[in-house]
Amino acid sequence: MIKEAYITRISKFLPHDPISNDELESVLGYVNDQPSKSRAIVLRNNGIKTRYYAVKDGVFTHNNVQLTCEAINKLVDQQEIQKVDLLACGTSSPDQMMPSHALMVHGELRHAPSFEVVSQAGNCCSSIHGLKYAFNSVRVGDAKKAVVTGSESFARKMQASNFVEEVQKLKELEENPYIAFEKDFLRWMLSDGSAAVLVEDHPNEEGLSLRIDSIDMCSYAQKYDTCMYMGGDKDENGNFKGYLEFSNQELIEKSIFSVKQDVKLLRPNIVAQGFEKLTEICERYAIGADDIDWFLPHMSSEFFRKPIQEALIKYNLPIPQERWFTNLTKVGNVGAASAFLMLEELLNKNMLKKGERILVAVPESSRFTYAFVLLTVV
After folding, report:
1. Please, what are the domains in the chain?
2. What is the pLDDT of residues 118-139, one digit of tens each?
3. Which candidate, 185, 147, 134, places its Cα nearest to that of 10?
């Protein structure tokens, strides 16, 4: 018997006080002891006003595992975690390659019992992959209570010491904001934080829950080359090479472990491809723009708001802006945690009403993957 699955609780952990745009370089450092020539342009395009870093007075205070555990400990106490059947964790920025992120999180939860643990690798969609795993596990009865997390730890990777001097193409940046997603420019895009959701086979007896109606994902990796990457690089012919194919010296010289973006691929594909897929999903479930009360698009930058709106109109899903909700400008782009952070604010600030329907859209540029979640407030 297939059961229903519900998000009954959401927590978040955003380390320390919010960092304003004027404070960024004091936290991340100056490349070659010079202020960034591109920072102001990038910030103008991405619209982020404040974000969070796991850094306090120049000292790193949390790694990814610790950020994740903070959110979990706010979600379930030591008594309730004894009833958890499943832990699924998604992140773009694990602290290590082995063991998996979720196993390291479980290891840090000393008061937790033994239960199923799943790590979802990838980028922004990784937490939604974890949510779908929990969704299906609860539906078929493999789990009654599942914890799903999304987290990122980028401050260490964005430190000035990790970047080599690069030519700042200011004129090109002004004319083409997609340039803002190349290597050094990503320093002003990504931030730290975590969020956790509790998925159960019944709704809350008191207060609101979010019934998970559907989770649909689609990859277009067979059509497009690698777009956003870390731990590899592209050669002169555009072929992607993983870090094992580089010498130790090249790993440093080419900044192989910096986060990079191929903006030539990003520009024509990131919005259009995914929202074309959304049309098929809406047709399958017989829903239209009028059926969506809240539209939560994960945007790495406010720059994408207009292209997303144009794509929705093009594909006959013209959800008006007054039904959109994001908190990018306040919390920054927290990658795998971003979708959960939007839901957390809606649910915990009593912005929802029973019967409302929520559509969450998460585009991932690494190899063009898209996730769409449909929820009903109950």
Report:
1. 6-200 (3.40.47.10), 210-223+266-377 (3.40.47.10), 228-261 (no CATH)
2. 999 999 999 999 999 999 999 9
3. 147
